[in-house]
Amino acid sequence: MELTEQQHAAALEYASLSAQIRRNRAAAQQKERVARLQELAEDHRTLAAQAKDVRAEIESHQKEARAAGAQAADGRTKAESMESKLNAGVGLTSRDLVALQADIESVRAAVGQAEDRELQALESAESAEAQLEQLRRRAEEIASEGKAEGQRRQEEAARLDGEHAQLVEQIQAKLSELPAGAASIIRSSGIGVLAAGACGACGAALSGVQADAVRNAKRTWAFQCEDCESLVVQA
């Protein structure tokens, strides 16, 4: 079909606006930002799981420290009682005194071992608590970044939606400038700009007949693609 210069310009502008709308909708998906938000969410879940394990580890160390502390306290009480008995020496033979002294030394050694275990458990708990604090700070950083990224996503979505509305308004205005037949084809099948002897909408090469027709036609002549049936206009 033959278009006027104004209609031809409107068709080209429509094709350009269509491409802009496609880019706008692709940008609206914000794939990189969504991927980053998903990555942050996964990192936060991982940190939460690690923190849970570390809290369990802290509780285990604290429980061990309490048990060792109680054992050490019991040992000290027992040793003190034995020492009082030793010092009193009432009813004890020399052999009894030697045996009691050995028992006291054994109990004191056990107390020392229990105190060592208590100290080691407390140090392990302290180290785990420091690790937990690091995990907490990192989780807060991730949450803060996720919040900021989510806000940027919302702002970008609002901007792109506004841009899309403007493009739709502009493209509808251009469509109204075209002949009814051309507008009907565009509504049903779309539009493409001829490029290197091929349909700009689907990429199919023109048939020999269509290629000859284009060569012999004015620049404002438009036709329907034999493959995708879109309206093809010349640049």
Q: Just name the CATH architecture of one domain.
A: Orthogonal Bundle
Structure classification: mainly alpha
Q: What is the CA-CA span between the terminal residues? A: 15 Å
> pLDDT below 50 for ≥5 consecutive residues: which ranges?
none
How many DSSP H or I helices?
Answer: 5
Q: How much beta, percentage-wise?
A: under 5%
The biggest beta sheet, please? 3 strands, mixed
What is the CATH T-level topology of one domain?
Helix Hairpins
In quaternary terms, these chains amount to single chain
Task: Give average pLDDT, whole number.
Answer: 95
Helix content: over 70%
CATH class of one domain: Mainly Alpha
**Gyration radius from CA atoms, angstroms:** 42 Å
Assign an overall shape. Answer: rod-shaped
Order of strands, widest sheet = 1-3-2
> Could you state the order of secondary-structure elements as H and E?
HHHHEHEE
Annotation, overall tally of beta strands: 3
Task: Characterize the structure shown.
By secondary structure, the chain is mostly helical. It has helices at residues 5-28, 31-88, 94-176, 180-189, 208-216, and strands at 191-193, 223-224, 231-233. The chain has a domain at 29-158: Helix Hairpins. Strand 2 (223-224) and strand 3 (231-233) form a beta hairpin. Helix 1 (5-28) packs antiparallel against helix 3 and helix 2 (31-88) runs antiparallel to helix 3. The protein starts with a helix and ends with a strand.
